[in-house]
Write a structure and sequence with these properties.
The protein has nine helices and eight strands. The protein has about 300 residues and is of the alpha+beta class. It has a single domain, classed as Endonuclease I-creI (Roll), CATH 3.10.28.10. It is elongated.
């Protein structure tokens, strides 16, 4: 008789399983060791403090975008090692950074209690298409949104030469800076948009990429220049706050350049070209009419 002879059998189909079940009926088992002496009950490390702080809020933003959540662990995968090092500084229980293929790294957090807490605030397994609002206090929303930006968002800064007036005014240029949030969940970007409008008074349209996969589409929030200035000023108000340095440097570079085109009262500078941006993914977005979500 093999080790797994009872696999798939029940007391209704096998008399041996029925006799074993009857012998255990009504019995209660207790450990003969105190909880602190039972090695099976010891946690792998100190519990994760889930009291809201700027560090925790930023880490939750990274988990919501670049994280994979299961019932007992969280893994964050990124091609930017600096971001994972910042994540480790926010979560004390995070493990070592390891290779994830040839061009990426990963870091794991093994904690059942932490995963259960994430579920209570709206981050559950298989979240890519189902992520909605995140139950974060308003005072920590911008720390969390900075994590969302570093995970799946972007900051673009470039010089634009308007095509319609290029021939008439060949030297006419103006500078743009935009904050972009992306997600495969429409409910999630709607939550970001409504919360930004409520807390900061900025608004933007909901953009949708052309469908490439029949089962999903990508939704995008692209904030204009003046809204972006207010958002980034709030994101980087504290120089010690955790962030992805290369995205913060775009903002710092924008502030460091003086307004050179004083005749048109616009900023300008040699920071890029429109042709380079047009080849990127962001400029292929199209404004479409997004149908309302189906009622349950």
């Amino acid at each position: 008789m093999g080790k797994d002879w009872a696999k798939g059998l029940t007391k209704a189909t096998d008399p041996r399983v029925a006799r074993a079940a009857l012998a255990h009926l009504g019995r209660h088992y207790t450990s003969h060791l105190a909880p602190e002496e039972d090695r099976r009950r010891r946690a792998g490390g100190s519990p994760i403090d889930t009291t809201w702080t700027p560090l925790l809020a930023y880490a939750v933003g990274l988990i919501a975008t670049d994280g994979c959540v299961s019932n007992n662990s969280v893994s964050v995968v990124s091609g930017d090692r600096e971001m994972l090092e910042t994540f480790k500084s926010c979560i004390s229980r995070a493990g070592r950074i390891g290779r994830h293929g040839q061009n990426a790294w990963h870091v794991y957090v093994s904690s059942v209690d932490f995963c259960r807490w994430l579920a209570t605030i709206g981050i559950r397994p298989r979240k890519s298409l189902t992520l909605g609002s995140i139950a974060v206090p308003d005072e920590f929303f911008f720390d969390l949104a900075r994590g969302l930006l570093d995970g799946d968002g972007s900051v673009t800064n470039f010089i634009l030469n308007p095509g319609g007036v290029a021939k008439r005014y060949p030297n006419y240029r103006y500078e743009r800076i935009n904050v972009v949030f992306r997600s495969a969940s429409r409910d999630h970007v709607e939550w970001i948009r409504s919360t930004m409008q409520r807390l900061l008074g900025v608004e933007t349209a909901l953009l949708c990429e052309p469908i490439r996969v029949p089962t999903s589409r990508m939704y995008t929030l692209r904030y204009g220049k003046h809204a972006t200035l207010r958002i980034l000023a709030r994101f980087y108000a504290d120089p010690e706050s955790p962030c992805l340095r290369r995205k913060r440097d775009i903002w710092a570079g924008y502030l460091a350049r003086p307004p050179l085109n004083s005749l048109q009262k616009r900023r300008s500078g040699g920071i890029g070209s429109l042709s380079r941006l047009k080849s990127g993914r962001a400029e292929r977005l199209v404004r479409v009419r997004v149908p309302p979500p189906a009622l349950a």
